């Protein structure tokens, strides 16, 4: 705990990043990741502790706290979440906005939409917000994801690719072109993110993409994973 009473590590070098079990469904992945991160860094899951963690100087902790607060329905955090969602920022801003939306606050969706306007080459929040909006049933951020997948920065392409499963929930006709783009990416990590999500979808068009990946991907481990996914369907 920091001197100011905020739970969690006081220095980024002390941050512990635990692994997430491989059997977690992709829709639940970020919630589980946030909970495990907080637990590994000594942040207890009770409401007062989570609210205090929103003030952590380590954005990763504050963002995870916002995520869990939204998932757990901790309405008492709404005033602080509104402050965070309206400030200059990146991941914390996007997660605070999503938490507000999950809590049913009317400022949540507009705050997520505002994140879409941030410069895509400088922030990850636009891509996170696009995925969050898709989970809420809106394709408002689709063009943001398209721009992310076309970024020159592989990290941003990877973060954009992480959101594709949410768009699949809106309909595969919306998501499949995005998956196709990700599976053609020169970066192994981007292609892997797309494949991990495709493995959970059961559709003839998805199977066609998996078959192509199993035949043509330049990395053996990706080809093998695609084939394993095909064998399960």
SSE class: mainly alpha
Order of helices and strands: HHHHHHHHHHHHHH
Please state roughly what percent of the residues sit in beta strands, choosing from under 5%, 5-15%, 15-25%, 25-35%, 35-45% or over 45%. Answer: under 5%
What is the assembly state of the chains in this entry?
single chain
Shape: globular
Helical residue percent band = 55-70%
Sheet having the most strands: none
Structure commentary:
By secondary structure, the protein is mostly helical. 61% of the residues lie in helices and 0% in strands. The chain is built from 14 helices and no strands. It has helices at residues 29-40, 47-53, 59-72, 78-85, 91-102, 108-115, 125-135, 142-149, 154-161, 164-168, 172-183, 188-198, 204-216, 220-232. The radius of gyration is 18 Å and the shape is globular. The N and C termini lie far apart (47 Å). The model has no long low-confidence stretch (mean pLDDT 94).
């Amino acid at each position: 705990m920091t001197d100011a009473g905020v739970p969690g590590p006081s220095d980024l070098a002390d941050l512990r990043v635990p692994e997430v079990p491989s059997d977690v469904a992709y829709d639940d992945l970020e919630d589980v990741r946030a909970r495990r991160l907080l637990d590994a860094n000594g942040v207890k899951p009770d409401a007062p502790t989570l609210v205090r963690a929103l003030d952590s100087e380590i954005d990763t902790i504050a963002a995870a706290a916002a995520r869990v607060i939204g998932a757990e329905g901790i309405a008492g955090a709404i005033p602080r979440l509104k402050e965070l969602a309206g400030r200059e920022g990146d991941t914390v801003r996007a997660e605070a906005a999503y938490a507000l939306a999950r809590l049913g606050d009317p400022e949540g969706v507009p705050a997520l939409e505002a994140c879409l306007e941030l410069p895509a080459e400088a922030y990850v929040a636009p891509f996170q917000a696009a995925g969050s909006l898709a989970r809420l049933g809106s394709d408002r951020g689709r063009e943001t994801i398209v721009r992310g997948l076309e970024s020159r920065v592989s990290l941003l392409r990877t973060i954009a690719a992480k959101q594709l499963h949410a768009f699949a929930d809106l309909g595969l006709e919306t998501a499949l072109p995005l998956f196709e783009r990700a599976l053609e990416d020169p970066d192994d990590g981007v292609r892997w993110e797309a494949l991990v999500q495709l493995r959970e979808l059961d559709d003839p068009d998805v199977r066609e993409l998996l078959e192509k990946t199993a035949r043509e991907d330049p990395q053996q481990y990706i080809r093998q994973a695609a084939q394993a996914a095909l064998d399960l369907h």
